[in-house]
Amino acid sequence: MKAKEIREMQSDELIVKLNDLKQELFNLRFSHTTGQLNNPMQMVACKKDIARIKTILRERETQAK
What percent of the residues of the chain are helix, what percent strand, and what percent coil, each to the nearest 5? Predict the structure, then answer.
């Protein structure tokens, strides 16, 4: 997911997407531990998406003040 796409989303949508990504990361970690994960780079991509969303939410929070 690109930062441009994230910036176009509403804050409520971002919070929902953030929760979904956290759940996905949990599932990826579980799969990795059990040896069922084929591509460990999925975890890295998921973490980066979470960080992008958190960054943009924080930017919006500071602009609102």
Answer: 85, 0, 15
Q: What is the pLDDT of residues 36-49, one digit of tens each?
A: 999 999 999 999 99
The model's pTM: 0.92
Question: Which residues form the domain of 8?
Answer: 3-64
For residue 56, which of 28, 1, 24 has the smallest C-alpha distance?
A: 1
For the chain, the domain total comes to 1
**Two tokens at 59?**
């930017």
Residue 26 neighbours by CB distance under 10 Å: 11
Alpha helices (runs of H) in 9-40, residue ranges in sequence order: 11-34
Instruction: Please report, for the domain that includes residue 48, its CATH number.
Output: 1.10.287.310
